[in-house]
Amino acid sequence: MAVLAVAAFLLRDKMPFLAEGYDDVRDANNTGLILGFIAVFASIVAMAEVMRGLLHAGGYEIPLAKTLQLTLVGNSWSSTFPGGAAISTVYQYRTMRLWDVSVVVSSWFIIVSGALSTVWLIALGLVSIFFLNASFSLAPLVGSATIMTALAMLVFFATNHPYGTETVLRKLIMGFNRLTRREPTRGLTSLHSQIVQLDAVHLSFGRFAWIAVLSLLNWVLDIVSLWLCIWAVTDYLPGFEMQPNRTTVLGVTLAFVTSKIVGTAQVTPAGLGPVEAAMTASLVAVGMTASNAFGAVFVYRILSFALIAGIGWITYFVSVARGGMAMETTTPDKAPNDEAAPETA
């Protein structure tokens, strides 16, 4: 962010919209900035509640304060380093193991939460594209949404029918063993021990639906933060009708989704550079002026990236100073073979 700020300052005379955007940032509405930060922080809380709900379904009572800590720290790992999403996933997994959450439930949480998050992001993009009549390649998005929805439903089915799942997996493993000329029963004991742990997960459709809503809310609140940042910089709130030099709620949503898709490669920390360029260009494409779009994106990234990452790192170092994030947990439905479970899924 510092490098981008210096570059923008030095290029302000060469690219007039940068200087205009800088003036917009200086004159930003403080109320909009505060509300924007509250919205983006609330989106983190929603994701922490998704974690708490999924772990509760596995029989582990983890306080919201702890899942919020882990979500903030995981976000900081993810957004600070190139390829940080993988580092964040490993950190979250290891922390859940410190909480004595089983291998299966920890892995199950990562799969389900990731699947739900991806499905909702794609759905928001499709809705925006449909109502804006934008020219866009729908086939990859529809295909991805179908795959992720099928994965989420498959995991939901496996969770509620563990022994039926075991029967199918036993046949697959035995078939694979025959093809590779291994012992026919190799891996079956380990499979059974993992399925016994999965039997501890009790996720009703109602609870699954509530967790899905929270996952959607995570994205919606993030979009609301961008929407409020536009208000803070331009003094107008995007509505549902297009006006000269202004965008709409759907335009804001499409710009947000586009930037997230660009940022998935994450060749820089939090997609720094490509994300800002994609979001600014998208906002211009849906009606905003370049200076207003640049100012709004700059403010939004300060709130959603710099401040949130800073809070996460403060949380991390405070927790390390106190001996880490290990804790005593209540595990009323803990599976009997959990202690013998391997450390890797």
UniProtKB/TrEMBL annotation:
It is found in: Cell membrane. The keyword Transmembrane applies. Its main location: membrane. One of its GO terms (cellular component) is plasma membrane. It is a multi-pass membrane protein. The keyword Transmembrane applies. The chain crosses the membrane at residues 31-50, 103-132, 138-158, 208-233, 298-318. Pfam families: LPG_synthase_TM. Keywords: Cell membrane, Membrane, Transmembrane, Transmembrane helix. This is Uncharacterized protein. It comes from Corynebacterium vitaeruminis DSM 20294.
